[in-house]
Amino acid sequence: MRGALLLVTGVIIGFAIAHEVSKTEKGKQFFDEVDGKAKQFGDAVVQGYKARESELRRAVAEAQDAIDDLAKRATS
To answer: What share of the chain is helix, strand, coil (3-state, %, to 5)?
Structure first.
């Protein structure tokens, strides 16, 4: 319980300090850079996810085609 209280207290203090720092020009610039990098990272994750999803869908479609072909051969 004490650890959770310290964690919450640290988070609150961190937010308060970040809020004060963001009021300065350099602080605003810093947080804008962090925000931009976080957005770039998020976009890269989304693109990677979509690319992998596409690869898996193609693989499943190819496997289904192979299964269908084998089923046709087995019944012929």
So the answer is: 95, 0, 5
User: Per residue in 11-39, pLDDT tens?
Assistant: 999 999 999 999 999 999 999 999 999 99
Residue 59 tokens read as 């693989």
Closest residue by Cα to residue 19 from 7, 11, 27: 27
- In angstroms and rounded to an integer, the radius of gyration of the C-alpha atoms of the chain is 26
1 pLDDT band, cuts 50/70/90, is confident
Q: Residue 76 pLDDT more than 90?
A: no
For 22, the 3-state DSSP assignment is coil
* 19/48 Cα distance (integer angstroms): 33
Q: How far is CA 65 from the centre of its chain?
A: 32
